[in-house]
Write a structure and sequence with these properties.
The chain is built from 1 helix and 5 strands. The chain has about 110 residues and is of the alpha+beta class. The protein folds into 2 domains: about 35 residues; about 60 residues. The longest helix is centred in the first third of the chain and has 20 residues. The chain is rod-shaped. It binds zinc ion (2 copies).
């Protein structure tokens, strides 16, 4: 785990360097583990910074026969929305992406 932590901080340092040079991350293939550090499409100056991910509450969208080996039971299919926001650290413009996450819950 210690090594992983070191790797992460190295990645963050790489982001800092990238920001300092104002280069989009995809211009460099040495930063493959950087998830998203694009330049702001609005001002072209700031960098899009990922905000804490927001999760909606789970809701039931259907049911299927149990996937856990219990032939008499049913499992619920649940979904929730996952909202990811990137905000420019220069002009404050934001880019919102909403995706759906699905899980199977044993219902019995
Ligand atoms: Zn901007
Ligand atoms: Zn089940």
């Amino acid at each position: 785990m210690k090594n992983l932590k070191k790797m992460v901080s190295t990645a963050l340092a790489a982001i800092m360097i990238t920001a300092g040079l104002a280069l989009p991350s995809y211009a460099s293939d040495t930063n493959e583990i950087v998830p998203y550090a694009a330049l702001c499409p609005e001002c072209g100056t700031g960098e899009m910074i990922k905000q804490p991910t927001e999760y909606g509450s789970w809701f039931i969208v259907g049911s299927i026969r149990c996937t856990h080996g219990d032939i008499w039971a049913t499992d619920e299919i649940q979904q929730r929305t996952v909202t990811t926001v990137y905000t420019c650290n220069f002009c404050g413009s934001s880019d919102v992406t909403v995706t759906t996450e699905e899980r199977i819950v044993h219902h019995g």
